[in-house]
Design brief:
The complex is a heterodimer of chains A (307) and B (265). Chain A has 307 residues and is α/β, with parallel strands linked by helices. Chain A has a single domain, classed as TIM Barrel (Alpha-Beta Barrel). Chain A has nine helices and 16 strands. In chain A, strands 3-4-7-8-9-10-15-16 form an eight-stranded parallel barrel, surrounded by six helices. In chain A, strands 5-6-14-11 form a four-stranded antiparallel β-sheet, with no helix packed on it. The radius of gyration of chain A is 18 Å and the shape is globular. The longest helix of chain B is centred in the C-terminal third of the chain and has 13 residues. Chain B has a domain of 93 residues: Elongation Factor Tu (Ef-tu), domain 3. A seven-stranded antiparallel β-sheet of chain B has the order 4-3-7-1-2-6-5. In chain B, strands 11-10-9-8-12-13-16 form a seven-stranded mixed β-sheet, sandwiched between helices. The chains are: A alpha/beta (307), B alpha/beta (265). Chains A and B meet through strand 5, strand 6 and helix 8 of A and loops of B.
Chain lengths: 307, 265
């Protein structure tokens, strides 16, 4: 084949120049990685989760390294939507990429308020609804484990926004398919998964948890097989597009998710280790397509063969 | 600040559990100031997964960055096995370093254990000025031979907890004694400290008791080093006594000691 392979993908109403995005909480509010990554080269950036009011986050230590992964219990420390819209968003407006805001509420009503707050706000391509954070006492994963509550939140956000709604699911459930179907039926445009796996680590010298919050969310390459399986299950139980997340470090990992049927992927922990990871993944996908005679990345998506 | 692979020039043992690693980076060398740090990716694979933060010990010949480090776990042990000629992915320089003292001030540098590393870079930067450099260790066997690591003469007073060498007691006792003996005018000195949190807390209280400006360099677990992950939070006290979090990687690692909420340390 000749020329550049076409990496464009569609996520419902969203058009991405390539399937590579950043995962919420690993890319700040977009400018922290300026020396390493031009966000305009990415399919989209998902910003750090925002709540109605600023949140201080959890006490320290907030992170612990584990084999092939890390635990975090940041506790959704964030500047709140007011400061975000006033001070941070203006710097992101006009970026030629999809800027996706991740929203987090302490109650079902909070999600409704958050959706309203971004209604008509320029420069925000979509909302990603966080019902899956394992590190907060109120809301987060507690909501996301319950299909009825997940459905209710999705419905409220969809009803009160003019933007496409992505719902981010927690893997800490018995059957991911039930949750995926529940948010699809409630009007979600896209599903993203997985958020972190609940876990803990203990300092044996002091017999104390390594995280002040005791438990945290596990991310990184250690969780990739779990993520891949849940993404594949979700893809096979809903019609809306699925974004694959979980331990993606390089283009090979990204390809696994695409082959499993994810329409796009998000890169998280890899950004910490290798700030240029997203750009390298895009380059790797391009080379893979060229070397395998693929002129449209969509030909790869969902190409898993089962004999 | 960039992430690149640099050649290791040397990586040698200074004393038990203490190593000095030098790598060639004219870029980092020209950008660095005392108190700043770098994030080192110890292996290209996933063991260990995260980078490790190290403060800069020395800049030599305008192109070599030296890191003085202690082996405290798996990551630093793997780092100690690296050989000259190997390449290392390093991101930096990062963070806000020390604000240099006014011309009229004498700088007092107070280190605890491996905390002497960033203070040495500061001492080197201030070498034409009168400074007092003191460091505390557990016992004589724990003393890091600074002059051997630095390859030059560095005047330093030693304190050991067990009195096996130098001042008998904590370095904070040595500091207190030095101030009582030599300092009569409160605005003639500035303190710079790096070491364990309990030591920094004590230095901070000595400094505020005497109304002396004091900067401390904090150590923290970190994932990104860029202010994105918010893992390295530190509690800061605002002027109206409210606390809020700042981040060691981006707002620090050097803070004014008076700004830190020491109540939970």
């Amino acid at each position: 084949m000749n020329g550049n392979p076409d990496l464009r993908v569609k996520l419902g109403p969203l058009e991405l120049k390539n399937p590579v995005m950043t995962a919420s909480g690993t890319f700040g509010y977009g400018h922290e990685f300026e020396p390493f990554v031009d966000p305009e080269l990415l399919g989209g950036i998902v910003l750090k989760g925002l709540s109605l009011k600023p949140m201080a986050g959890n006490p320290i230590p907030r992170i612990a390294e584990t084999p092939g992964g890390m635990l975090n219990a940041i506790g959704l420390a964030n500047i709140g939507i007011e400061e975000f819209i006033e001070k941070r968003l203006p710097r992101l407006k006009g970026l030629k990429t999809n800027v996706i805001v991740n929203i987090y509420g302490h109650s079902i009503d909070d999600y409704e308020e958050l959706a309203k707050a971004f209604r008509g706000v320029e420069g925000v391509a979509a909302l990603e609804v966080n019902i899956s954070c394992p590190n907060v006492e109120m809301g987060g994963m507690i909501f996301g484990k319950d299909p009825a509550v997940s459905a209710k939140i999705t419905e409220k956000v969809v009803k009160n926004t003019d933007k496409p709604v992505i719902v981010k699911l927690t893997p800490n459930v018995t059957d991911i398919r039930v949750l995926a179907r529940a948010v699809e039926e409630s009007g979600a445009s896209v599903i993203s998964l997985i958020n972190t796996l609940a876990g803990m680590a203990i300092d044996i010298e002091h017999q104390r948890p390594k995280l002040a919050n005791v438990s945290g969310g596990l991310s990184g390459p250690a969780i990739k097989p779990v993520a891949l399986y849940q993404v594949w299950q979700a893809v096979n139980s809903v019609k809306i597009p699925v974004i694959g997340i979980g331990g993606i470090m390089d283009y090979r990992d990204a390809l696994e998710f695409l082959i499993a049927g994810a329409r796009a992927i998000q890169v998280g922990t890899a950004n910490f280790v290798n700030p240029g990871a997203t750009i390298e993944i895009i380059e790797g996908l391009k080379t893979y397509c060229l070397e395998n005679g693929i002129d449209d990345i969509n030909d790869i998506i969902g190409s898993l063969k089962k004999d | 600040m960039i992430d690149q692979h640099y050649e290791i020039v040397f990586n040698r043992k200074i004393t038990s559990g203490i190593f000095l690693l030098g790598f060639k980076s004219p870029h980092i060398a020209s950008e660095s100031s005392p108190g700043q740090f770098v994030m080192v990716r110890i292996n290209e694979g996933i063991d260990p997964l995260l980078r490790r933060p190290f403060s800069i010990f020395d800049v030599r010949d305008k192109d070599t960055i030296c890191l003085l480090y202690k082996t405290v776990g798996h990551g630093t042990e793997l780092l100690s096995l690296k050989k000259a000629g190997e390449r290392l992915s390093v991101m930096g320089p990062l963070g806000r370093g020390f604000s240099l003292p006014d011309e009229k001030l004498q700088a007092i540098l107070v280190g605890g254990g491996i905390g002497i590393a960033p203070l040495h870079f500061l001492a080197d930067t201030l070498k034409n000025r009168p400074i007092e450099f003191m460091a505390g260790f557990g016992k004589s066997g724990d003393i890091i031979p600074l002059e051997q690591a630095a390859g030059r003469t560095v005047g330093i007073s030693i304190a050991t907890d067990d009195g096996s060498e130098g001042y008998h007691g904590m370095v904070t006792g040595l500091l207190d004694e030095y101030l009582s003996r030599n300092i009569h005018e409160k605005d003639s000195v500035a303190i710079y400290a790096c070491g364990p949190l309990a030591m920094l807390k004590k230095v901070s209280s000595i400094a505020s008791g005497r109304n002396i400006p004091c900067q401390v360099s904090l150590e923290s677990l970190m994932a990104c080093g860029l202010g994105a992950c918010q893992g390295c939070a530190v509690k800061i006290l605002s002027q109206d006594n409210k606390t809020f979090y700042r981040h060691v990687c981006k707002d620090g690692p050097v803070f004014s000691s008076h700004a830190i909420d020491w109540s939970n340390v």
